Amino acid sequence: MNYLKLVVVGDNLVGKTCLLISYVIQKFPEYIPTNFDPGSINIKVGDDIYCLAFFEASFSSHISGNTYPSDEVLIAHVVSKYPGEVASGTAALLPRVAVIVVATQIDLRADEQTVQNMARGGQLPVTISQGEKLARDVGAAKYVECSTKTLEGVASVLMRPFLQPSIPRQ
Fold first, then answer.
1. Crossing angle for the helix pair 16-25 and 154-163, nearest 10 degrees?
2. Are strands 39-45 and 48-58 parallel, antiparallel or unpaired?
3. Partners of 63 in the beta sheet?
4. What does the alpha-carbon distance between residue 170 and residue 94 come to, in Å, rounded to a whole number?
5. What phi, psi does 41 have (nearest 5°)?
6. Can you tell me the distance from the alpha carbon of 90 to that of 59, in angstroms, rounded to the nearest whole number?
7. 82: pLDDT confidence band, cut at 50, 70 and 90?
């Protein structure tokens, strides 16, 4: 069997753990621990079966090419309050890994209270075109969105790199 790692990298308290747990248990978790115990699933890509291991890392942890050699990491998802800074930093630390910028709370775009609170601070929810531009600006392979609360897009966000191998690795 072939083995692959998917590492979700980002700031603390931005949804990395919730993204992974929501995918594994197929619902929004009632309790969200502060970090995700590594887990794995088997996936089929073409005629091959892979054991895909999930990991998460805070960007503040010491991530490096030595921590995740290029033959072990297929992709790093970036979830961050400051995605441009984190995505470009991750790309610099892991130059042979495809970086994907991920928005994990798209359900909040339609949440009136969230939009009003953001507006009071002079902000608006990030649009798809803004996310795509950010991905281009930081050299990420792709921008993708999901809602860990409603599960909209969660599976495709995590599985897309494996089912669409055309995503370039740097």
1. 90
2. antiparallel
3. none
4. 9
5. -140, 160
6. 8
7. low
Q: What are phi and psi of 44, to 5 degrees?
A: -110, 125
66's tokens: 């030595």
Q: What is the 3-state secondary structure (H, E, C) of the chain?
A: CEEEEEEEEECCCCCHHHHHHHHHHCCCCCCCCCCCCCEEEEEEECCEEEEEEEEEEECCCCCCCCCCCCCCEEEEEEECCCHHHHHHHHHHHCCCCEEEEEECEHHHHHCHHHHHHHHHCCCCCCCHHHHHHHHHHHCCCEEEECECCCCCCHHHHHHHHHHCCCCCCC
Residue 49 pLDDT > 70, yes or no?
A: yes
CA nearest neighbour of 148 among 39, 26, 8, 51? 26
Nearest-CA neighbor of 7 among 80, 62, 95, 77? 77
User: Rounded CA gap, 115 and 14, in Å?
Assistant: 17
> Distance from first CA to last CA of the chain, Å, rounded?
25
| Nearest C-alpha neighbor of 23 from the set 159, 162, 154 | 154
Position with higher pLDDT, 66 vs 136: 136
Matching residue, tokens 């594994």: 24
pTM equals: 0.74
